[in-house]
Amino acid sequence: MEQEKKKKMQTDSSPTMATGNSSYNYANNSSAQRKMTDVMKPRIEELIANKLDLGRLAANDNTFRVADLGCSIGPNTFLNVQHIVEQVRHNKYQTMISTHSAASSSSLPEFHVFFNDQINNDFNALFRSLPLERDYFAAGVPGSFHTRLFPKSFLHIVHSASSAHWLSRVPPEVVDRGSPAWNRGMIHYGESPKPVEDAYRAQFRKDMGGFLKARSEELASGGMLVLVFPGVPDGMLQSETQISSVINCVNLSILDLVRQGVLEEDQLDNFNFPVYFPHPWEMRELVEENQSFSSIELEVVDPEESTWLQGGVGLREWAVAIRAAMEELFARHFGGGEILDKIFDGASQKIAEHAEVIMNTKCKELPLLYVALQRK
Ligand SMILES: C[S@@+](CC[C@H](N)C(=O)[O-])C[C@H]1O[C@@H](n2cnc3c(N)ncnc32)[C@H](O)[C@@H]1O
């Protein structure tokens, strides 16, 4: 029984952000993710203007449905969905009304927005900060985006920022002492032997495969799926990215605490980040295997465009960003309060000590993968 509980703790990731009450809460510590919103804006405008075919979409009812998957507690999710709603309403429907005499303003649809995250997301905090002035109906949809969340052919645009790289669980092999993929003393795969990376990649294939299958069923024909999340440019290794060096600093901080006897070695061995940063070729392969999407845009955003370290966010803030994104996960494994301060204060210090190495990695910044797909 104890054994079972321990195993579950090791592999059940179900991540959520620091809750609305924590001083590291996501709402105040999500400027890195906000950058992704900025990256998406012009791309989404172009996509809606050129690819969205209203005739095909709104044939049966007059409600336009948008979902944001992995919404957290805001504020980025509100900016993202508002932008989508505005683009569809003003740049698509109103243009149609002004150019077609048969169309009238009664052809304007109502908008229904669905905010999705894991069941343990702080939905109360999310709903408390819903913009009062919004021009859409809002609903929360709890559950994992790796499975079905909506009825068939229900949605018109699905958006997800900074979330699709989360795995449904830590690959079980990496916490299995008998496996060649046992990730002893490490918390991610960037600096680990190849079998560890292979185990992460296999888990991502399974999860993203499930994600695409579910979306292909939920999207109406002609509907769009738009994703942005961290990835690694083709031909590059995860260890050559800046994010990998930063995660390594968190790892070194935990290792120091093990050496000081504050944490047990077992606690380190059993803890792994449940995120995977895919290459574009891996995403392309999965989309092609799925066969439900007709148009595919897939690019690594130019780091110049997605740069955030120079945009006022300092190197040491990486540790705060990781804490805000993963606080609950750390707290569940290592315990909360003081121990978290020790881990992240130590990580900030390591980041400062390794600043030169971090700033000189082959792949600067946080490379972002932008994926836009249209349902056949
Ligand atoms: C870094 S936050 C991004 C929040 C927001 N989209 C933004 O751009 O600021 C990642 C979110 O993805 C959610 N998430 C991770 N795995 C998920 C899953 N399987 N299903 C639904 N949400 C998930 C996490 O709980 C978290 O709230």
UniProtKB/TrEMBL annotation:
Q: Fetch the SUPFAM superfamilies from UniProt.
A: S-adenosyl-L-methionine-dependent methyltransferases
Where are the residues of the annotated region Disordered? 1-35
Composition bias type Polar residues, residue spans:
11-20
Keywords, A to Z, come to:
Magnesium, Metal-binding, Methyltransferase, Transferase
Gene Ontology molecular functions: metal ion binding; methyltransferase activity
Against InterPro entries, the record matches this protein to: MeTrfase_7, MeTrfase_capping, SAM-dependent_MTases_sf
- Where is the sequence biased in composition, kind Low complexity? 21-32
Q: Could you tell me which Gene3D superfamilies the record lists for this protein?
A: Methyltransferase, alpha-helical capping domain (1.10.1200.270), Vaccinia Virus protein VP39 (3.40.50.150)
GO biological process, alphabetically ordered? methylation
Q: What is this protein called?
A: S-adenosylmethionine-dependent methyltransferase
